[in-house]
Amino acid sequence: MIVHLLPALLAATSTPVAFQSTEALDQLVQQFAGAPIGVEGGARAAVDKRLRLAACADPQLSWRSAAEDAVVIRCPGPQQWRVFVAVNVLPKAAPTRAPVAVAAVRPPAPVKAESVIKRGDPIMVEAGAAGFSITRQGVAMGDAPVGGRVIVKMDDKRPPVAAIAMESGRARLPGFGE
Length: 178
Fold this sequence. Notes:
Strand content: 25-35%
Distance between the termini: 78 Å
Shape: elongated
Strand order of the largest sheet: 5-6-8-9-10
């Protein structure tokens, strides 16, 4: 009996399954976007040929967003699927305005905050919340302005901690009492 079922089983499994043509999807994207693959306004690349999408009688195309940077292809049928195709975005035209004379102004140089904690300084590190407070002495491993992060070595046997510089000689562990 098994011998008689084998040809029928092979015939049933060898029937071709209908897949959506990726070339057809490329043509739809080209028509929708108005430009061929690889140029401005067209798809960046062809739809991946390795995709095995169920055949779709009526694929629907839309823009992914107002930026028009990708096309979404949807199949609404019983075998629903969705594919995103990246698009080479067209440069947007700048709004037309009357020319304005602009004086060359150099932006001010950024002011570097003065460090209140210097490398090697002994500092007190605080941690706490409503109802309790803990302080521990440590040594600053770098410089830090007020509000800046500083690495503090508190014990030779434990890794250093990151604290927020409060003032000279004082830092606070972030996340406690904030």
